[in-house]
Amino acid sequence: MRTAPTGCLSLLMFGLVLALPFVLANAVLTALTKLGLGPLSALGVAVGIFVGGAINIPVARVQQAERVEYRPTRLLGLHRLLGRPVRHRAYTVVAVNVGGCLVPTVLAGYQVARMALEAPAALGALGIALGLNVGLCYSFATPVPRRGIAMQPLVPALAAALSGLVLAPEWAPPIAFAAGVLGPLIGADLLHLDDIAQLGAGMASIGGAGTFDGVVLSGLVATLLVPGAL
Predict the structure, then answer these.
(1) How far is CA 225 from CA 23, 26, 173, 202, in A?
(2) Angle (CA) 187 192 193, round 5°
(3) Can you tell me whether residue 123 is helix, strand or coil?
(4) How far is Cα 68 from Cα 61, in angstroms, rounded to an integer?
(5) What Pfam families does the annotation carry (predicted)?
(6) Handedness of CA 162, 26, 181, 202 (dihedral sign)
(7) Residues 150-174: pLDDT tens digits?
(8) Phi, psi of 170 (to 5 degrees)
(9) What DSSP character marks residue 5?
(10) pTM of the entire predicted model
(11) 94 CB contacts (<8 Å, ≥6 apart)?
């Protein structure tokens, strides 16, 4: 049995690494054009997602759980028995990521506005899909100490895509995208804001993983999974 030379495998891996950004960019543009965006608009949104992934905008500060440390005191030689309590207060900065949260949220709002103008009846399907996805994301989201809220983005993506296909097939792409974006944003992030103070992280960024965050990734994957374009 002959095996491929190590040099060929290394060259193949190098080629795959080089091709990955182009494949990812093509997938993003394909999803955006299925939402009715023209080539230039889709390119502008894609650039906003990729570049904006490096920008976090602080919006709030949450006080973490107070930590009390007992330091020894030398009062009357009882330093081994008595401790002086020292209270430590720390804060978590809550921020929103431009590429991973703001851009997809604005685009989702645009899709909702389009449906309200062109197909008001589809808003009911969107409401059902969004409600299901919010509940699903809230259940699957897990607070991870010193990291943030973690969730598998394929779960809301599949739920949003199936909801769009079943409830309103002719408007499946915008429903899948809006539910795929707003579901994780509301269910996984906003409804878990109370857990942020317990995580001990210096910053909690909504959409902080940029292009690979659950908010934008769920919406894009959900859009790619449904057929058709508007």
Answers:
(1) 16, 15, 9, 36
(2) 125
(3) helix
(4) 21
(5) DUF1614 (PF07758)
(6) positive
(7) 788 788 899 999 999 999 999 999 9
(8) -70, -20
(9) -
(10) 0.80
(11) 58, 59, 60, 61, 62, 193, 196, 203, 204, 205, 206
